[in-house]
Amino acid sequence: MKLPHVLLLIVIGFLIAPLSASPQPPAKMYRIGVLSSAALAASYRTLPNYQAFFEGLRQLGYVEGQNVAIEFRTAEGKLDRLPALAAELAAAKPDVMLVATCAAPLDAARRASNVIPIVVGACTGDLVASGIVKSLARPGGNVTGLQKLNPNWRLNGLNFSNRQCRKCRG
Prior knowledge:
By secondary structure, the chain is of the alpha/beta class. The chain has helices spanning about 5-20, 50-60, 80-90, 105-110, 155-170; strands spanning about 30-35, 70-75, 95-100, 120-125, 145. It has a five-stranded parallel sheet with strand order 2-1-3-4-5, with helices on one face.
C-alpha cells in the first residue's frame, strides 16, 4: 500500500471514530443532606470534624460540585426548627442524611424519613437501649453510625485480656 493510501485511511478513521463512539452518560450526582442543631450555617466547612468528613469524601473520589452535592440545614441553636428542617431535607430526597449527634437532630431526621439512610456522626447515648437500632453489629432500619461507648471500655477490655492471659499461663 502506498503512503497516500495509508494516510487517507488514517484520516478517514479519525473522522469516523467520533461517529461510532457512544456518549458517556453523565456521572451520578450523589446528594448528602446534613442536619445540625448548632449555629454553623456559614462556617461549617471550617470545623475540624466537617473538614475531616470532606477530606474523607475526596479520598474516596467524591468531590463536592463534581459528583456529590451537600445540602446543609442548621437550626442555629433553635431546636424547635429541627423537625421542619429535617422534613425539608427529606423532601429534597438526598441519598443519605448525616446528623452529628443522636439527640434532637437524629429524632427529627427519623421522624422525617424511615427510608432515607441516616448516618449519626457520634452518639453518646445508647442506640440499642433506646431502641433506635436493633444492635450495633446489625442496626436494621435506616439509622447507622458511630456510638461513643463508655470511656472506660478500652481499659475494661485490657483488664479482661490481662486476666485471660494470666489464666492461660496457669
